[in-house]
Amino acid sequence: MEDLNALLTPGMLVQHPDRPDWGTGQVQSNIGGKVTVNFRDHGKVVIDSFRLALMPVFDEG
């Protein structure tokens, strides 16, 4: 299996591809295929990197 979020580091901004209503989230940690993200409109979520690829956000403008 491949870690779909291996390049994400704490502080990076991301969006959940299936939950745009959660808004932009900030990566809190990325350890062993588990990415913890604090989403603006949903709160803290742990994502399994082997099941879902988060979408990096480079420009919120």
Secondary structure: elements and pairs:
Elements: E1 13-15, E2 25-31, E3 34-39, E4 43-48, E5 55-56
Antiparallel strand pairs: 1-2, 1-5, 2-3, 3-4
Question: Which characteristics define this entry?
Answer:
single chain; about 60 residues; mainly beta; five-stranded antiparallel beta sheet; about 0% helix
Account of the protein in words:
This protein has 61 residues and is an all-beta fold. It has no helices and 5 strands. It has a 5-stranded antiparallel beta sheet, with no helix packed on it. Strand 3 and strand 4 form a beta hairpin. The chain is globular and about 35 Å long. The termini are far apart.
Strand content: 35-45%
Number of strands: 5
Kindly state the percentage of residues in helix: under 10%
- Please, what is the oligomeric state? single chain
Task: Estimate the global geometry from the Cα principal axes.
Answer: globular
Order of helices and strands: EEEEE
DSSP helical segment count: 0
- First-residue to last-residue Cα separation: 34 Å
Structural class: mainly beta
- Going across the major beta sheet, what is the strand order? 4-3-2-1-5
Largest sheet: 5 strands, antiparallel
Unreliable segments (pLDDT under 50, ≥5 consecutive)?
none
- Please state the CA-atom Rg, rounded to the nearest Å: 10 Å
Mean pLDDT: 94
